[in-house]
Amino acid sequence: MTDAAADGALIERYRHGEAEALAALVEKYRRPLYAYVLNMTAGREDVDEVFQEVWFRVIRRIDRYRQKNFYGWIVRIAHNLVIDRARRRKPSVSLDADGDGDRHAPAETVPARTADPAAESADTDLGRRIAGAVRALPPEQREVFVLRTHGGLSFKEVAAVQRVSINTALARMQYALGKLRLMLQEDYEQLDR
Amino acid sequence: MHCHEARNGILLRDAGEMSAPGLSALDAHLAACPDCARFAADTARLTAAARSAAVPDGPSPLVLDRIRAAAEAAAPRPLLLRRPVLQSLAAAALLLIVVGAATLWPPPGGGPAPESGARTERIADLQAVIAVVSDEQADSAAATAADDEDAALQGLATQLLRMQGLLEDEDALDVLAGEHPATDPQSRSTSALRARRYG
């Protein structure tokens, strides 16, 4: 059974009253959706709240679900929620705007290496530096990168989530990779290990 | 193929979105262009590192519990637990018992058992009552549940008839299968039933 068919079967079961079927979908997409929300929101306490609200909206709208890609659908819901919250909190942060330019200076936002030994041991952790570098990307580029790497969406699906052309999604990915390469230059040797 | 096109091609290839002819052209370009070959290697390295970078497991268990509770509260209830269905079934069962007792029990004083034709008539009466009850209940029930309710009521009627031993009758089976136009339950009205029963 394909992923889409398996998801469709779970949705049908939920529509017929099996609450466990939705719990199975929550479990299946817990990590990629959480990674997406974590990368697209500013604070940890906001992450849980957004994650929860996404599933509440899924539950309310499940009868309207007619698509083939369930993860693409819930990401679209999360995307809209993140935009709503960003507009309410920080009007300057927008996922709708063209984010292909260099509005953010990566060097200012990536966690810097430090001389403090304790902080050094935490900060040199490659995973954290990569996560920090990804979060330093402009939102539109970050979203493309996260949806591709953690969500496994195709560029066609990413473009649908962002409501842009596939060429724009590809260009955003190229910008993101270029910036990450620059930000992680010092860690490059470790990336090969 | 230009370098810009080739780099888009590398991304599409990694996402499994490139056609076979496109792949051949890309391979040819990569063999001749060291910059694009480096871009391909860097892309693979960065995306693999990002995938393997620690990602938190998920939200707090409390959040997951809340989502589960919301899913349970919002899940459509199974047919037999829905209130309108239960009400319909209870009303139908009560009517069937009363009408069934009145029509199928032998008259006091021990008269002869009803003939096959008479049984068929009575079954048709019962079905007409079921149809009336279904129509009345369908108004208050959700539209989407109407078909399920009809099926449940028909099932209940069948069970009651089986208990009365009427389903062994061939004529009765014809009536239940809707193959007896003269006794089509949908064609009978409540007033006609009352007139026949009470004179």
Describe the structure.
The complex is a heterodimer of chains A (193) and B (199). With 193 residues, chain A is mainly alpha-helical. Chain A contains twelve helices and no strands. Helix content of chain A is 69%, strand content 0%. The longest helix of chain A has 20 residues, at 70-89. The two termini of chain A are 35 Å apart. Chain B is mostly helical. Chain B has two domains: 3-52, no CATH class; 79-198, no CATH class. Chain B is built from nine helices and no strands. Chain A binds chain B through residues 14-19, 22-23, 26, 30-31, 34-35, 38, 47-48, 51-52, 55-56, 59-60, 126-128, 130-131, 134, 145, 148-150, 154-156, 167, 170, 173-174, 177, 180-181, 184, 191-192, and chain B through 7-8, 11-12, 15-17, 39, 42-43, 45-47, 49-60, 63-64, 66-68, 70-72, 74-78.
Features:
heterodimer, A: 193 residues, mainly alpha, Rna Polymerase Sigma Factor, Chain: A, Arc Repressor Mutant, subunit A, 2 domains, elongated, B: 199 residues
Helix and strand element order of chain B: HHHHHHHHH
Number of domains of chain B: 2
> What's the number of helices of chain B?
9
Number of helices of chain A: 12
CATH homologous superfamily title of the largest domain in chain A: RNA polymerase sigma factor, region 2, helix turn helix motif
Q: Please indicate the percent range of residues of chain B in DSSP E strands (runs of 2 or more).
A: under 5%
Name of the level-1 CATH class of the largest domain in chain A: Mainly Alpha
